[in-house]
């Protein structure tokens, strides 16, 4: 029987929700690994809505669960209904929605608050010693909730202009966590906390390299499950 994995989304679209390619890559690799996946998102209003064509704010309101349902092909549940006891692992794709809707990192940085259901879900999986996979900006959730853990968002320096958000690594360190430098096609496994992270679109890289990096994260999560 395949591993039971929960996937948590933060909306639909890189600038105000989940990064679509990351969510799809995670689902493809989970499918290839024989996992049984259920998708969740918090039933809350988005912090903002961004016109993805213009890259500018839109004067409208959207719901994170409703927008995430687009990526889930309608098969999705409220995060408040997730029970860690029913799963072997959990994975969070990235996208600005993580930093806007699942927590307030986009506004408050290391002083952010984490959505109550996201926090309780992470704590439940961690307490049960079940693996947690995070990619792109999502590792900041672990850094905020689990002081002392190890994560990667890629590199801590903007090497050749490929890591424009490298300063995030310093903020993670200021939270008492250890940032591990990794390439885009790699992931890092914090064995003590069963947290697996990969940088994905935190690195400017070809899509296939990002896809492969997410694949290593998924494989390590399934190994730990």
Automatic annotation (TrEMBL):
Q: Which InterPro entries match?
A: Class_I_gatase-like
Say which domain of life the source belongs to: Eukaryota
Instruction: Tell me the protein's name.
Output: GAL3A protein
Origin species, per record, is Brachypteracias leptosomus (short-legged ground-roller)
């Amino acid at each position: 029987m395949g591993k039971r994995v929960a996937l948590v989304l933060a909306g639909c679209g890189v600038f105000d929700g989940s990064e679509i390619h990351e969510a799809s890559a995670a689902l493809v690799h989970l499918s290839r690994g024989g996992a049984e996946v259920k998708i969740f998102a918090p039933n809350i209003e988005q912090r903002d809505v961004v016109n993805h064509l213009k890259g500018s704010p839109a004067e409208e309101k959207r719901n994170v669960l409703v927008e995430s349902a687009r990526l889930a092909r309608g098969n999705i549940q409220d995060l408040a209904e997730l029970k860690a006891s029913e799963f072997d692992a959990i994975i969070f794709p990235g996208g600005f929605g993580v930093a806007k809707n699942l927590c307030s990192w986009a506004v408050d940085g290391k002083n952010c608050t984490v959505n109550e259901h996201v926090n309780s879900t992470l704590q439940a999986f961690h307490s049960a010693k079940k693996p947690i996979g995070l990619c792109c900006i999502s590792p900041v959730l672990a850094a905020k909730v689990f002081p002392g853990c190890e994560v990667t968002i890629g590199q801590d320096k903007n090497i050749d202009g490929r890591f424009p958000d490298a300063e995030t690594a310093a903020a993670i360190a200021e939270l008492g966590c250890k940032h591990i430098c990794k390439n885009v096609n790699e992931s890092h496994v914090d064995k003590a906390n069963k947290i697996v992270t990969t940088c994905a679109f935190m690195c400017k890289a070809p899509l296939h390299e990002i896809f492969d990096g997410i694949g290593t994260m998924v494989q390590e999560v399934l190994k730990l499950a």
